[in-house]
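Practice problem: predict the structure.
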Amino acid sequence: MGVLICGMTLLLLIAVRRAPLTSSVNISKEAASHASLRILWPVGVVAFLLGAGQFSVLVFGLFYLHTLAVHAAWIGGVLFGLFLAGGFLARIVAGFLVEGIVSLRYVFSTILAIGALTMIIWGSFPDHPVAWRILCFSFIFGIGIVGYNALPFQWAASLVGHHQKGRAMGIMSAVAGLSIALWMPVFGMIVEIWGYRALWYVLAILYVVALVVVLRYAGMSTSSQATAQSAVDY
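Answer:
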C-alpha cells in the first residue's frame, strides 16, 4: 500500500509540474502558474506533518489498549467509533465556521491544540483505565486528530486562483498520501524501539509544530505569502 501511495504521489506531482509544449505566451503563463503554486508550501508542510495521525491511532491504537490491559473487543470498537464520530462532527462544524464566521486560522489552530493535548493524554493513560472515561475521551480525541482534515484543502484553495484550485487540491492529496507512506514505517520503528507511549508523544510534537506553522502563516494574504516564499527561496 505504501509503494502504491508513493507511486501515485509521484505521478500526481509529475502531472502538476509538467508544462505543455505550446506558444511562448502559454509557457510564460504556465511558469507563472507554477511560481504562484509555490505559496502552498506552508499548507504542504502542515499536511505532511498531520497526514498519518489518524491512521496511527487506528493502526496502533488497539495494540496500545492491550498494553493497558484493555482486552475487551467491544471497548476497542466503541472507542474507535466514537473517535471517528468526533472527527466527523468536527469537520462539519469547522466547515461551517470558516465560511465567514470564524477565520480558518483560529479554527485550525484550535483543533490542532486539542489534538496535541489529547494525544499527550492518550499517551499518559494508566494501566486498567476506567472504560467510561476512555470512551468519553475518545470523542474529544477524534475532534483533535481527525477534525482538521478538510482545512488544509480550504486553506490551499484560498491561496490560488480559480483555475489553479484543481492543481492545488491534487498537490495536497499527494502530500497527504506521501505523508502516510513515509510516516507509518517510522512510527512502527518507534513502537519497536521505545514503545507506544513514545509514539503518541512524537505525534503530539508533530501537531505542535503544525500548530506553529498555522499560527504563523494561515490567514496571511497572498502577497504576504509570496513575500514569505521569496524569503525562504533566498
